[in-house]
Design brief:
mainly alpha
Length: about 200
């Protein structure tokens, strides 16, 4: 098995394991990936007891506040790049960072501004046609490292703000994750019928 296929398979196993562990622990509702209720409470306790942890948390809040004013990367910019990754590095990095940072900030504070910005980003990037550059490969690659970053940001973000999303928003965001991230990755790297690697 090639290193790349092994890594992709490893990520899928880790995410599946996290979801299964959450289900076994009785976590029937979101969040159950990273920022569970128990972990949020533990972090609050550590912040109260350790000034260094409190200082790191304050840095997270500053980053989250700055992200509230960040412009989202246009589809035209992302699709306008050439090479293996095109211009998808900037939007995929932004989504990964927003999912993690805004998701944690929302879970810790309940401040709806963080959830709204994260929701806006996920709905914005759901309008993309793909989450991977067109590297001129034959056959064409439909997923690459940027696809994984989008998937990470979506998974963490969706899990963190699940309760504030409407049913239609959940459907749109989850549908985009499957259509633009999970299916292309499985088809390119894992499933035998369409696998190209």
């Amino acid at each position: 098995m090639s290193t790349q296929r092994f890594l992709v398979l490893g990520v899928i196993v880790l995410v599946a394991n996290a979801v299964c562990e959450g289900a076994e622990a009785g976590l029937k509702q979101a969040p159950r990936l990273l920022y569970t209720n128990d972990r949020v409470e533990a972090l609050r306790g550590r912040m109260a007891a350790d000034p260094a942890v409190r200082k790191r948390w304050e840095a997270v809040v500053r980053r989250a506040n700055a992200m509230l004013d960040d412009e989202l990367v246009s589809k035209e910019y992302a699709e306008g790049g050439t090479g293996q990754h095109g211009n998808y590095g900037r939007p995929s990095s932004q989504m990964a960072q927003m999912g993690q940072t805004l998701g944690l900030a929302f879970r810790m504070t309940g401040d709806a501004r963080y959830a709204e910005k994260l929701k806006s980003a996920m709905l914005h990037y759901a309008a993309y046609q793909r989450w991977a550059g067109d590297g001129g490969h034959t056959p064409r690659w439909n997923s690459e490292l940027n696809t994984a970053r989008f998937c990470y940001g979506y998974a963490v973000g969706y899990d963190c703000i699940y309760d504030v999303l409407s049913a239609d928003e959940r459907k749109d965001i989850a549908g985009a994750l499957v259509r633009l991230g999970i299916e292309p990755t499985l088809n390119d790297w894992i499933l035998g019928d369409k696998r190209i690697h």
